[in-house]
Design goal:
The structure holds two protein chains of two kinds.
Chain A (H helix, E strand, L loop, with lengths): L2 E5 L2 E3 L5 E8 L8 E6 L5 E7 L6 E3 L7 E6 L4 E6 L8 E8 L11 E4 L3 E5 L2
Parallel strand pairs in A: 2-11
Antiparallel strand pairs in A: 1-3, 3-8, 4-5, 4-9, 5-6, 7-8, 9-10, 9-11
Chain B lengths: L8 E4 L5 E6 L11 E6 L6 E4 L13 E6 L2 E6 L8 E8 L4 E3 L3 E5 L1
Parallel strand pairs in B: 1-9
Antiparallel strand pairs in B: 2-6, 3-4, 3-7, 5-6, 7-8, 7-9
Classes of the chains: A mainly beta, B mainly beta.
Chain lengths: 124, 109
């Protein structure tokens, strides 16, 4: 069974930093691209960033580029999101999501598995 | 990276059919056959219902169908059931990102 479990959420002051982790199980981790998708409480989904199967390619939403860094450790079957210079508008549940792929390097076109999310609250 | 446009709410009676639209541009919806649709119940993670415009993952009811014309994609739910009451989001691949729609709340009357 595919499982994605996020951790590392919490309360942080504006301008602060936080690192989220996503532990994966139930599939061959390094065959798949991964992503972070966030959802502010009561609001819609927003794609944040994505990383390809070997970590050699990353993409970011304009709203977080230069402040957030996505990375992965295939040996540990883990995905990470380093968030710096946090703002109140970054407050959200952050979901780890797996891109569907027929093979490593396949087009990152939709998400077939999601974690439950980790809540990040940016507040003074 | 502007969000795709969806109606805020759509409602229907049990057994009826409803359609949710998702409007983008030639850089997203219109440029690729990579539109997907997600169902989200309160407090739950999203679940993919349609991918690649009109394909259904294994286990998803054939009451759900998708289509696209130009820059607008659509999700149709036929034979509406109480369990279909949820939020629905479209999403599209782009050359630099993935983008979601604004979301539609489906209410079963």
């Amino acid at each position: 069974e595919v499982q994605l479990v996020e951790s590392g959420g919490g309360v942080v002051r504006p301008g602060g930093s936080l690192r989220l982790s996503c532990a994966a199980s139930g599939f061959t981790f390094d065959d798949y691209a991964l992503s972070w998708v966030r959802q502010a409480p009561g609001k819609g989904l927003e794609w944040v960033c994505g990383i390809n199967w070997n970590g050699g390619g990353t993409r970011y939403a304009d709203s977080v580029r230069g402040r957030f860094t996505i990375s992965r450790d295939n040996a540990k079957k883990s995905l990470y999101l380093q968030m710096n210079s946090l703002r109140a508008e970054d407050t959200a549940f952050y979901h780890c999501a797996r891109y569907y792929g027929d093979y490593p390097g396949d087009t990152e076109r939709y998400f077939d598995y999601w974690g439950q999310g980790a809540l990040v609250t940016v507040s003074s | 990276q502007s969000a795709l446009t969806q109606p805020a709410s759509v409602s229907g009676s049990p057994g009826q059919s409803i359609t949710i639209s998702c409007t983008g541009t030639s850089s997203d919806v219109g440029g690729y056959n990579y539109v997907s649709w997600y169902q989200q119940h309160p407090g739950k993670a999203p679940k993919v219902m349609i991918y690649d415009v009109s394909k259904r993952p294994s286990g998803v009811s054939n009451r759900f169908s998708g289509s696209k014309s130009g820059n607008t994609a659509s999700l149709t739910i036929s034979g509406l059931q109480a369990e279909d009451e949820a939020d629905y989001y479209c999403s599209s691949y782009t050359s630099s990102s993935n983008v979601f729609g604004t979301g539609t709340k489906v209410t079963v009357l």
